[in-house]
Specification:
The protein is an all-alpha fold and about 180 residues long. It has one domain. It is built from 8 helices and no strands. Helix 2 runs antiparallel to helix 7.
Length: about 180
């Protein structure tokens, strides 16, 4: 009975996930502007959108999610199962939903619609957080799952940094306004 109780996240955990959703949405929105507001500091470029490409907008979900993961790690990890794996999969889901929805609706409409882009961002964050929370309830997986999750987060973080400065010339990296790539 005690084991089952441990596997069910507490009200404290659900509160953290709700607060985290709001945190990620607001910080991600702020990260859209921090590069320009910083006077275009290179260090800020690694974590903020530097142009209007889809790729740069994915950073707006990734970095705030990673920051929230670090903030909630100590108070929440012991109350859940599979914390790192759950948060990693939730974060990956966020950054998969955004381009799928964006490219789907723009292929139909032929253009980007600001309100849909904002709604997509918010929905992606909510879905990622819900998935994380639901995975907290699953049976504890072997410790290797957390190690794999950590590697997955590191690889994605490194990719965001590298592709900010050295983006491949693919549509996902192209600035929709300047038609350039990376830092303009």
């Amino acid at each position: 009975m005690e084991e089952k109780a441990k596997m069910l996240p507490s009200k404290k955990v659900s509160t953290y996930e709700i607060v985290g959703t709001v945190f990620i949405v607001f910080l991600g929105s702020a990260f859209h502007f921090t590069y320009a507001l910083s006077g275009k500091l290179v260090i800020v470029a690694a974590f903020s959108a530097v142009n209007e490409s889809v790729w740069e907008h994915l950073k707006l979900a990734f970095w705030p999610s990673l920051i929230w993961l670090l903030l909630e790690y100590l108070p929440v990890k012991k109350l859940t199962s599979n914390f790192l794996l759950a948060k990693t999969l939730g974060t990956y889901l966020m950054i998969v939903i955004i381009p799928i929805v964006f490219y789907s609706y723009t292929s139909i409409t032929g253009r980007s619609i600001f309100v849909i882009d904002i709604a997509t961002f918010i929905v992606a964050i909510v879905v990622g957080q819900i998935i994380s929370y639901s995975l907290f309830k699953k049976k504890q997986l072997p410790r290797i799952a957390d190690k794999i999750a950590l590697v997955m987060l590191a690889v994605l973080g490194i990719a965001f940094i590298i592709f900010t400065f050295y983006p491949p010339h693919l549509p996902i990296f192209q600035d929709s306004i300047s038609r350039g790539y990376g830092i303009a």
